[in-house]
Amino acid sequence: MKSKNGPANRQLIRDINQNSLLNLIKTEGPVARTRLAELSGLSLATISYITGDLLERNLLLESGAAESTGGRKPVLLEIRPEGGFAIGLKLTEYEIIAVILNLNGEIVYSERYSFELRDHGKQAIFLLAEQVQALIGRSGLARAKMIGLGLGMPGLINSEKGICIDSPILGWYDVAISEPLGDLLNMPVYVDNDVNSLAIYEKLFGQGQPFDHFLTITMGRGVGLGLVINGDVYRGGLGGAGEFGHTTVIIDGRQCECGNLGCLEAYASDWGILHTAQEMRGEEIPANSLQAPEHEILRLLDQARAGDIVALEAFRLAGKLLGVSLANLVNLLNPQLVLLSGSGAGAGSILFDPMHQALEAHTFARLGQEMRLAIEPAGDESWARGAASLVLRQFFLSPVNGGI
Ligand SMILES: [Zn+2]
Fold first, then answer.
1. Residue 12 CB: number of other CB atoms within 10 A?
2. 403 part of a folded domain
3. Judgement on whether residues 192 and 246 belong to the same structural domain of the protein
4. How many of the other CB atoms lie within 10 Å of CB of 332?
5. Does one domain contain both 286 and 350?
6. Residues 109, 162 within the same domain
7. How many structural domains compose the chain?
């Protein structure tokens, strides 16, 4: 049996200390070594040892001088943005959206292309490894600086084990990803539900930074929710928490993609909004209508903006149901911030005026007063950015509670 303080354990402690320090330097930087010692509780000798190593690996910059009470001015440390890069892939059934982020979470390279992933399951791992190698080559960035790969995908994901348990959109069931793909690429691979990845990005680099309790709601192909509670993503028992789109808004209502009746998604997703309009017009609903092409929802939006009564009503109903559902969430969780994101957030006041009205009408007492509501229409690239932030999250491990 290995001793508790054996080499493996010491290495682990060193890694944890290193990542915790990186986190402190990211949030506090530019920061002096003495301040890092105060904040982390580590000895100055340990701080000097670890930061010396990080400087040698070009992950830190030494800069300027801090205010000093006299004597020699201390050197300040900050993250070197180009010291390392994180790759993020958003996988959909028909394409890959890829970005490479620097250590500040900024996109330094991106691309998207058609790539049929559906039903490939295990074989897809080999294809993905090839794609990532080619991506790094095309980016022109040094392979040695890649600190890891993050994958964001729709569905139920065991992020701890790196397994896709159930992704109906991709047709993947019980597919191990992190380990085989990490072995093929020789770098750490992290996988998570795509909306959770987005929430992690917002907490690390985006509007969620100041908050420990916030919701990221995505609209578009479906209706998703990433929950950040007590500073960390809330996943629930099986890792499936956040199926906001499949909460019931109309008892015995329209059939949803999930098989249940009356889900929010069946009214407030792109296809849900289109169905409402088609129903009102007495049109036949096409068999493959759950994959609403983007141009159809944009056309309906144009019609609504031009005053078309049916189109307006379809968005109004979606907004109202979204607002009521959101009020239920606010009453349950008392978030400090709600971020509305995804392509559907581009619909503007036609969707969000009725949503605001319903939200206000159904929010309990004063819970809504202190809450910030931000609408941030996001393109597909933001999903890939979220996936890459899975890597940066590990890199900047929070020393406090293991949260984001
Ligand atoms: Zn459903």
1. 11
2. no
3. no
4. 10
5. yes
6. yes
7. 3
Same-domain status, 114 and 148? yes
Distance of CA 222 from the midpoint of ligand 1 (Å):
9
pTM of the model: 0.87
Domain interval for residue 266: 210-378
Q: Ligand 1 centre from 271 Cα, in Å?
A: 12
> What's the CA-to-centroid distance between 266 and ligand 1, angstroms?
7
Q: Express each pLDDT in 105-156 by its tens digit.
A: 999 999 998 888 766 666 888 889 999 999 999 999 999 999 999 999 888 9
Q: pLDDT at position 178, please?
A: 96
* DSSP assignment of 97-163: EEEEE-TTS-EEEEEEEE---TT-HHHHHHHHHHHHHHHHHHHT--GGGEEEEEEEESSEEETTTTE
Ligand 1 center from residue 364 Cα (angstroms): 26
Could you give the 3-state DSSP secondary structure of residue 85?
strand
CA of 325 to the centre of ligand 1 (A): 14
In a shared domain, residues 223 and 365: yes
- Residues 159, 238: one domain? no
| Residue 401 placed within a domain | no
Ligand 1 centroid, distance to 128 Cα (angstroms): 30
Report the separation in Å between the CA atom of 232 and the middle of ligand 1, taken as the mean of its atom positions: 26
CA of 190 to the centre of ligand 1 (A): 27
Domain boundary among 79, 104, 137: 79
Distance between Cα 118 and ligand 1 center (Å): 20
Rounded CA gap, 322 and 213, in Å? 20
In-domain check, residue 404: no
List CB contacts of 222: < 8 A, sequence separation 6 or more: 154, 245, 257, 265, 269
pLDDT digits (tens, 9 = 90+) for 6-47: 666 777 777 778 888 998 998 898 999 999 999 989 999 999
Distance in Å, CA 120 to ligand 1 centroid: 25
pLDDT at 262 exceeding the cut of 80:
yes
Same domain, 215 and 358: yes
**Dist. CA 258 → ligand 1 center (Å):** 4
Cα separation, 72 vs 111, whole angstroms: 48
What does the pLDDT look like over 345-375, one tens digit per residue?
889 999 999 999 999 999 998 888 889 999 9
Residue 324 Cα to ligand 1 midpoint, Å, equals 17
264 Cα: distance to centroid of ligand 1 (angstroms): 7
Report the separation in Å between the CA atom of 175 and the middle of ligand 1, taken as the mean of its atom positions. 23
